[in-house]
Amino acid sequence: MDTEHDHTHLSPRPLVLVTGANRGLGRAVATALAQRGYGVLVAARRSRDAEDACRDLRAAGHWADPVVLDVTSQDSVTEAAEEVRRSHGRLDVLVNNAGILPEATAPDAAQPMDADLFRHTFDVNLFGAVRTTQAFLPLLRVSADARIVNVSSRMGSLTDQGDPRSPYHSMVLPAYQTSKAALNGVTVAMAKALRGDGIRVSSVCPGWVRTDLGGAANRAAAPTSAAEAAEVVADVVTGDLETGGFHDASGTIAW
Length: 255
Fold this sequence. Notes:
Helices cover 43% and strands 14% of the residues. With 255 residues, the chain is of the alpha/beta class.
């Protein structure tokens, strides 16, 4: 038997990997896509966290497999992609969800030029998505209908940041906002670069979500539950959208 290509645990099509899927929005996105019939690869930094999330999905009758993946570690990302290649041989959808917002809880966050804070935020929010996409691109190319969805934020829209009428205009979180603006730029570039491969690339803003991302104050103030926000992400994953767009619950967002 050719064990190299004996993918004994193949999921039903399509197969989606969600980074940061063990809690918050990522876990809700994994659940929403499982409910829509996807096989879900639950990616988390710690094996136990990924396995716990998978156990809950399986208990609800869904297909799920854990993947250990730390988006800040090139070795971890490379090993995760190799594991998926050995076990499944392909990937249909990559959801780059893992993200951080340390400015919401860091002391002196109002000071906009903290290089260390920028470096830490970009390492997860931007470079993490780039590392993961690069590693999984060969598996996405195997798919007949591959998609990459980058979880961004309307706070990364330069149009909104410059519009006093926008509800996001008054928010000053420079490292987070510029990391998401940069991620949006990567979405545009990837969409053009991968058009010939038939891989569609989108950015999505799930809304202001009640998760641990911004600490206790965020959980208290945010109007959108993780489950509601996950449906926005899932709609972009499953929708027949033109590549290279930026979307939220209301439709297309200006860059």
